[in-house]
Each structure stands twice: as C-alpha cells, then as structure tokens.
Amino acid sequence: MAALGKTVRKIRKNKGLKLMDVADNQLTASFLSKFERGLADMSTSRFLHLLDRIFTTPEEFFYIHNGTPTEKKASTDGYYSRTAMLDRLFGNYLSLDSPADIQQTLTDLTRRERAAAAQYQAAPTLLNVLHWRIQQVMRRMVTRLEQQRPLTSLNNTGQYSAEAQNYLYNVSDWGEFELYVFTLFSLDMQVADERRLFKVAVKRSKKYSTFRGAPHLRFDMIANQLFLEMNRRAYPVAAEYLEQYKAALVADPNAEHEIMYCFVRAWWLYRTGQRETAATVGQGAIRLATALRMTDIAQYVQNELTQIATHGPEADYTFFRLVIE
C-alpha cells in the first residue's frame, strides 16, 4: 500500500488537487496524508472511491503506477469509475432526437444549470465549477441547434470554458479525465487555445491504444477535431488534421476509423469543390463498411454524404458529433 500511496500523491499533485479537495465523508485529509506516506492502509472499495475522487480509472492508475503499458486483452469495459466520472462532470444523458426532445432538453438544462450554480456557490470545488460550466456550454449548444445555427465557430469567446482551460494548462500529464474535459469544453474555447490544447490531447491520448477500455481514444480525439474544423469551415486546417488521422491509422490500423477517415475526407473534398473525387472516396467508404458488415456505419455515411452533396456547409451542423468512448 505504501507504493500505491506514492502514486496517488503523484496523480493528485499533477492535477493540482489539495488533500482537502480530495477529502470527503469517507476519506479525511489526515487519513489521506497517512496513506500517501505509507502509514495507513485502506480497503479495496475505499481505494476505488479514492481513485474516483482524483478522477482516475483503475487501469489508468496502474498504468502510471507500473510505468508500462497494460497488456492488450479482450475488449470489455472493466472500468469502475469512467461512467461515474463522466456523470459527475456532465450529468445525465440528454436526448436531441426530435424538436420536442430539444425543447425538453433546454428546459432540463436550464434547471440543471441553476442547480449546478447553487452547488458551486455552496462548495466552490474544481469539479463543481466544471459541472456548472458544462451545463452552460450544453445549453448554448442546444439553443444554437434549435435556431439552426452552427454549434461552434471561429469566433468563440471562451465565455464558459475559462476555468477548464486554466485547469488543463496547469496539468502536466493529462489522464482520461482531462481528455474528456477538453472534449466537452472544446465547443466553447477560443480557437487558438482549443487548437493548442488539441495538440496536447493527441499526444496524451496515444498511450490509450494499449488500454482495453479506451483503445480508440486517440482516433476519437482526431475525429472530434475534424468535426469542429469542418463546422468552422476551416478547410486548410482540416486538411492538416486529415493527414494526422491518416498517419495514425497507418501506425495502428482500425477499420471503423478508416471508414470515418474516408467519410471526413469525402466531406472535405465536397466542401473544397472536388465533387467527383469526393463521390469516389465516399463510395469507397460505403463499400468498405458494407463488406465488413458495419451496416449502421454504412447507412450513416451514405445518408450524410447525400446531404453534403445536396446542401451547402450551412447545413453541416445537423450531423455534428463529439465522441467520448
């Protein structure tokens, strides 16, 4: 346990968390200090709770503790805390499947934002301010969706992401929690800061290719960035990230993301006036997905490329997505 305590302290310090930030009714600051110094032990359930308090999954903890990649195993999500971690940061699932859903979601987000603000005022912790701010980001996003406007632009003010951005700039070694914070707040950040932090995100997400619970995280980060840039109509920047996506797939092939790469490339070709090449690349993506029996993905690519071919970029917001594995 003494060695585990040292790793806990390392992670806590890296995230800029004080003992009082981690302490709660199950873990006092005094006990945590003793555990970190190897002067106290704790039960497995209590240790898992501690990992939750420092925003770290068990697999990630032992990756840091052992200093080596975890062995690739069968694909099962064995995480104790990822769902709980995201629930604490983001909140419950939101439905945007229909106009009625959007109206209800706006009502729910207004309620959630007020509750989160009150919670932050009562206890101004890092997690509480991030939870409050993400409700504001999501409310603005859903409002734009209702108004049929792009969900992000080159003129983002960063109004709701200052605390998240400051936190990310001050964490030297990002973990999954930081990657998810970046993903959720990327919609609001000023573009220069968002692109700078994206470079950190890609670098830090590379190690997760060895994690059984998050093997596609680096690909998801690049795909998410491409959706942001394409919706910003920043086509020269998107071209650079397409090359980065391609290089990542050459180094670590993945069928689903190969299809997604071809889809985004076809989308980019349509938006840069190369319609014939776009159609060819798009059909190749559909054929590949069909051959691999990925029927849902094949249908998605077909539907969205049909819209892209028949509508201008002002309609691209309708299939915007950000993926958190």
UniProtKB/TrEMBL annotation:
SUPFAM superfamilies: lambda repressor-like DNA-binding domains (SSF47413). Signal peptide: none annotated. One of its GO terms (molecular function) is DNA binding. InterPro entries: Cro/C1-type_HTH, HTH-type_regulator_Rgg, Lambda_DNA-bd_dom_sf, Transcription_activator_Rgg_C. Residues 157-302 form the HTH-type transcriptional regulator Rgg C-terminal domain. CDD domains: HTH_XRE (cd00093). Pfam families: Rgg_C. It comes from the Bacteria. Gene3D superfamilies: lambda repressor-like DNA-binding domains. NCBIfam families: RGG_Cterm. This is Transcriptional regulator.
